Automatic annotation (TrEMBL):
It catalyses: tRNA(Val) + L-valine + ATP = L-valyl-tRNA(Val) + AMP + diphosphate. Residues 964-1028 form the Valyl-tRNA synthetase tRNA-binding arm domain. CDD domains: Anticodon_Ia_Val. One of its GO terms (molecular function) is ATP binding. Residues 16-508, 588-702 form the Aminoacyl-tRNA synthetase class Ia domain. Catalyzes the attachment of valine to tRNA(Val). As ValRS can inadvertently accommodate and process structurally similar amino acids such as threonine, to avoid such errors, it has a 'posttransfer' editing activity that hydrolyzes mischarged Thr-tRNA(Val) in a tRNA-dependent manner. A motif ('HIGH' region) lies at residues 46-56. It is found in: Cytoplasm. Gene3D superfamilies: HUPs (3.40.50.620), Isoleucyl-tRNA Synthetase, Domain 1 (1.10.730.10), Valyl-tRNA synthetase, C-terminal domain (1.10.287.380), Valyl/Leucyl/Isoleucyl-tRNA synthetase, editing domain (3.90.740.10). This is Valine--tRNA ligase. Pfam families: Anticodon_1 (PF08264), tRNA-synt_1 (PF00133), Val_tRNA-synt_C (PF10458).
RNA sequence: GGGCGAUUAGCUCAGUGGUAGAGCACUUCGUUGACAUCGAAGGGGUCACAAGUUCGAACCUUGUAUCGCCCA
């Protein structure tokens, strides 16, 4: 059947994809050879609320290239797709939908009903991004699409069969029992909008306009000191008596929770007052707290006044200082970021804090219970409180004042300078943390959270990369990996959300034997906590531990009416004071696990662990992970730690990291800049193959990814080129009618022997590029081969054969042409699956219409032939000679303005035996493409000829009457100039005795051969130049 | 401030010690029967700078400058 004029990507893509999917081409193990090794890629699970963006398109193109390549090679492949449940993002999406459809809010409907809504939403809309991947041609095993919440309680029937939930819970319980997970009070990123802790990854630090206020903290009891400032040379520039220390802050509202003022130990200005007490200048005057001046390495002497207030509960740096110095950390805000309104009146609370400062013992929880917000600020939003605090301090005269001079114009236009004393407030940009979803300012907050003790599990993850078990590409990624893991922090894994894996820990509040609040064990001041994988296991633990006590659970949804954790407290406390419990009432921790905790188990969780599955046996450890370098820490490192901690094996052997896809100028794509490119728009306009080829060509190791539309257009043209060359084979030379074979046809013509060898070289190049994850090298090799070698040379050179009457030559060339196209399609298929499959199909009706997967290109055998076997050096030398003659003639003609269409005569003055043979065999071809009508042998070229030098031969075009002699002279002079430069370099090297001594023999031989060739060329051109000089 | 990286043709980028490359853009020419989403022929680079190692450096070392990214 004749090929259409052009490739219609829009209709072909969906038709081909459906045919592949229906024929089961993507399923695990499809096209595997018997006894094949396995090759597995885990998709980095996109967010279930996500839509496809360029980053996904790039990332998944690379994965698909590798999978298709390995699948064609006969490996037992699995590309495992799926999504993560994205706790915060999904809750946000569903809550927004509830609001838009006038349904009750999350809080109104309660936890259980809300989760039902989430599952409904997931069923309706959760598959968006996975379906979008199909538009790219992604050949993942969609029948295995996984979800990090599958199998969770409350999951609908179609999500209940997965067991990701079991895996997550089992890992938590095991790590808890091994002491790798603990609960504690620690500073976390708190999102006041969603009222949950969030991970560092979900925080965006953005520079925003802010203010730096300067306040005076008076020394206690009116004490004074001499404050001295010196310049670089030690000269005194300021000396005065002060009764205060000056503090600079961007967050005055946190002053209420200050625990100390810190200065650098080497700061001489404050040395006299270190250890003294200062008064926090806010709050009711009669209850002002006193805090100490301490030393710490953290303050920067040159920043602000050099003195820093320490608010351990609301700042990450201060937290470290407070921990080092044993400074109390007072929490000032509630979960919404408003100033606390709980607790006793301020006077009472301030007294507690002062008592603690003087040495009274308080537990962590007791300190946390202290509310140091004065009555008039309680309940205010933090930004409102900030204004109020600034106002209070300023009105009390405790702001640092400066003189500001302004020029003012009066009504008559006279300018006068007016000075006034104003509070010192610097307007300056400050880095502020924002929640990436909520867009509100993140509040560092001291809260109770669950943590993985990362330090205890980091060792094996470090070793696996250090000893080469796992490779990270590009190599610089390994350095970053070490740096982070060697300085690892505890990992906060609890989130105050409803959508997620609920933490499998139950609390049993009660009363200690001495009557104090505590757990039924009487062990410590928190409630008793028991970790178990489910309530059945929990009941067994309770029964055994408390002499046969029955376990009764109350709901942990304390937002529900009539449900209060105090119920459990009351019930348990009524149960007597000895160990004879008959029943214990507990509730489950309401928090859920960080989504990354489940994503961290993606490799084993998707393969069915903890069950002993065939997939685990076959595909784990997996092979290659391709992901963005921005989640090296958050995901890659955690997968390493968790898989090693849980199954004692690395999750993959190679990690390929890539950067962010940017616009053509290198700017980040963002909605606000308006430079976002939708990959599906590109697919619509240029076809998926063009986008994929662009992605591959951009993917140099460690390279920056700049997406340029011009480039996509160029690769769309390449798709067309491939189509046209195939259509020439089909419609013009009828190459595809005969039977063909995977092996190269027998060929006698040098042209055909040559292209077979070129294909073999290409196959090696493509394989070694893919092996080394150099997708760009593979793409460039394919592009250069097909455009410059196959189309510009081979295809053109077949024309004289089909215009001639040598039937044997025609038959052979048809066979070789068809084979070369087939091989090109195979080698290009991983990068451009659609157009290649379509051509494969229409040139032989193979597979797509019949649904026979074994005849589709996607399951064709990847070739293994070697250049060493298929390259014919003789044929190669001959074709290179022919090409050199044609190129030289064309170039010379163009430069001296011989009309391109003119047929001209040529003379040969000298030619060696090889050259003669080459000429004789390729005369028709050379004449056609060099536009030569005759060749005459002469001893000497006619005066005024154009000189053509070829290896072993000298030609001339006797066109004295047509050409511009001056131009020809200029051309030859230019060539001689270039040659002279090259010759100089080559002779310089060869004449240097040290070069002969130190350089490898092959380099010397190569240099000599090169010199000889250049010298021959120079001699010919000089001769021609002299001949030309004779006539002009 | 700490860590990682970059600087090569007008633009976007390859190039891990042996004659500086590609694509795009540019100039000139072209309705020769695969293809104008094309063809032919060209121009264009002190490889950021400086010093060093080497027979030989875009490439290795050190420093400087500028620019990114990540973490504070």
């Amino acid at each position: 059947m004749a090929m259409e004029k052009t490739f219609d990507a829009a209709t072909a893509e969906s038709r081909l994809f459906n045919a592949w999917e229906q024929a089961g081409c993507f399923t695990a193990g499809a096209n595997a050879k018997p006894e094949a090794s396995s090759y597995c890629i885990m998709i980095p699970p996109p967010n279930v609320t996500g839509v496809l963006h360029m980053g996904h398109a790039f990332n998944n193109t690379l994965q698909d290239i590798l999978i298709r390549w390995k699948r064609m090679q006969g490996f037992d492949t699995l590309w495992q797709p799926g999504c993560d449940h994205a706790g915060i993002a999904t809750q946000m999406v569903v809550e927004r939908e509830l609001a838009n459809t006038q349904q009750p809010s999350r809080a109104e409907m309660g936890r259980e009903a809300f989760l039902e809504k989430v599952w409904d939403w997931k069923g309706k809309s959760g598959g968006t991004i996975i379906n979008q991947l199909k538009r790219l041609g992604a050949s993942a095993d969609f029948s295995r699409t996984a979800f990090t919440m599958s199998g969770a309680p409350g999951a609908p029937a179609d999500e209940a069969d997965g067991n990701f939930h079991d895996a997550v819970i089992k890992v938590f319980v095991e790590m808890y029992n091994k002491g790798l997970i603990y609960r504690g009070k620690r500073l976390v990123n708190w999102d006041p909008h969603f009222e949950t802790a969030i991970s560092d990854l979900e925080v965006e630090n953005i520079e925003t306009p802010g203010h730096m206020w300067h306040f005076k903290y008076p020394l206690a009891g009116g004490a004074t000191y001499t404050y001295v400032e010196k310049d670089e040379d030690g000269n005194v520039t300021l000396e005065e008596t002060r009764d205060y220390i000056s503090i600079a802050t961007t967050r005055p509202e946190t002053m209420l929770g200050d625990g100390a003022v810190a200065v650098h130990p080497s700061d001489e200005r404050y040395a006299p007052i270190v250890g003294k007490l200062v008064e926090i200048p806010v709050g009711p005057k009669e209850h002002r707290r006193l805090i100490p001046i301490i030393t710490d390495e953290y303050p920067d002497k040159d920043f602000g006044s050099g003195a820093v207030k320490i608010t351990g509960a609301h700042d990450f740096n201060d937290y470290q200082v407070a921990k080092r110095g044993g400074i109390p950390m007072y929490r000032l805000m509630d979960t919404k970021g408003a100033m606390r309104a709980d607790g006793a009146p301020y006077a009472e609370e301030a007294a507690k804090a002062q008592a603690h400062a003087k040495g009274a013992e308080f537990t962590e929880n007791e300190i946390d219970a202290i509310n140091l917000v004065p009555e008039e600020l309680r309940g205010l939003d933090r930004f409102e409180a900030r204004k109020a605090v600034v106002e209070q301090i300023t009105s009390e005269g405790l702001a640092v004042m400066i003189t500001e001079t302004q020029t003012v114009k009066d009504d008559d236009g006279n300018e006068t300078e007016v000075s006034q004393i104003v509070p010192f407030v610097e307007n300056k940009p400050i880095m502020q943390p924002f929640g990436d979803r909520s867009k509100v300012v993140i509040e560092p907050m001291l809260t109770d959270q669950w943590f993985v003790d990362a330090e205890k599990v980091v060792g094996p993850a470090l070793d696996a990369v250090k000893d080469g078990t796992v490779k990270i590409l590009p190599e610089s990624g390994e350095k970053t990996y070490y740096h982070w893991l060697e300085n690892i922090e505890p990992w906060c894994i609890s989130r105050q959300l409803w959508w997620g894996h609920q933490i499998p820990v139950w609390y049993f509040p009660g009363r200690n034997k001495d009557g104090s609040v505590g757990d039924p064990d009487g062990a410590y001041d928190g409630p008793l906590a028991i970790c178990a994988s489910d309530t059945k296991e929990l009941a067994a633990i309770v029964k055994e531990r408390f002499n046969g006590a029955i376990f009764t659970e109350i709901s942990s949804d304390f937002s529900a009416p009539d449900n209060n954790p105090m119920d459990a407290f009351m019930t348990n406390s009524l149960l007597g004071t000895n160990e004879d419990y008959s029943s214990l009432v507990g509730f489950r921790d309401p928090d859920v696990l960080d989504t990354w905790f489940s994503s961290g188990l993606w490799p084993i969780g998707t393969l069915g662990w903890p069950n002993d599955t065939q997939e685990m046996a076959t595909y784990f450890p997996t092979s290659t992970l391709i992901t963005g370098q921005d989640i090296l820490f958050f995901w890659v490192a955690r997968m390493m730690m968790m898989q090693l901690a849980v199954v004692d094996q690395v999750p993959f052997d190679t990690v390929y990291l890539h950067g962010l896809v940017r616009d053509a100028k290198g700017k980040k794509m963002s909605k606000s800049t308006g430079n976002v490119v939708d990959p599906l728009d590109i697919v619509d306009e240029y076809g998926a193959d063009a986008l994929r080829f662009t992605n591959a060509a951009m993917a140099s190791l460690g390279g920056v990814l700049k997406l340029d539309m011009k480039r996509i257009e160029g690769y769309r043209n390449f798709v067309t080129k491939l189509w046209q060359a195939s259509s020439y084979g089909d419609n013009v030379i009828d190459a595809f009618s005969a039977e063909r074979d995977a092996d190269a046809p027998k060929a006698t013509l040098p042209l055909n022997r040559w292209i077979i060898g070129e294909i073999a070289k290409l196959r090696e190049e493509v394989d070694s590029a893919f092996d080394a994850f150099r997708f760009n090298d593979a793409a460039n090799a394919l592009y250069a081969f097909f455009w410059n070698t196959f189309c510009a040379r081979y295809l053109e050179f077949t024309k004289p054969i089909f215009h001639g009457d040598d039937q044997a030559a025609k038959d052979e060339t048809q066979a070789v042409y068809a084979w070369a196209i087939d091989q090109s399609l195979i080698l290009m298929h991983p990068i451009m699956p659609f157009v290649t499959e379509e051509i494969w199909n229409v040139t032989d009706g193979r597979g797509i219409e019949t649904g026979d997967a074994s005849k589709m290109l996607i399951h064709a055998d990847w070739p293994t032939y070697k250049a060493a076997d298929l390259v014919d050096a003789e044929a190669e030398a001959e074709m290179n000679w022919v090409i050199a003659v044609i190129d030289n003639v064309r170039s010379a003609r163009a430069q001296v303005n011989v009309p391109a269409g003119a047929q001209v005569p040529m003379v040969v003055t000298q030619i060696d035996a090889a050259g003669k043979a080459y000429w004789d065999r390729n005369e028709a071809l050379i004449k056609r493409f060099a536009r030569i009508d005759s060749l005459t042998e002469m001893d000497e070229a006619p005066k005024g000829s154009i000189a053509i030098a070829a290896p072993g031969a000298s030609f001339g075009l006797p066109l004295a009457e047509i050409i511009d002699v001056a131009k020809e002279k200029a051309r030859l002079e230019k060539t001689l100039g270039k040659l002279a430069k090259e010759l100089g370099g080559l002779r310089g090297r060869l004449n240097n005795p040290k070069f002969a001594d130190s350089a490898p023999a092959e380099v010397i031989a190569e240099t000599r051969a090169n010199l000889a060739a250049r010298e021959e060329e120079e001699a010919k051109i000089k001769e021609a130049f002299e001949r030309l000089a004779e006539i002009a």
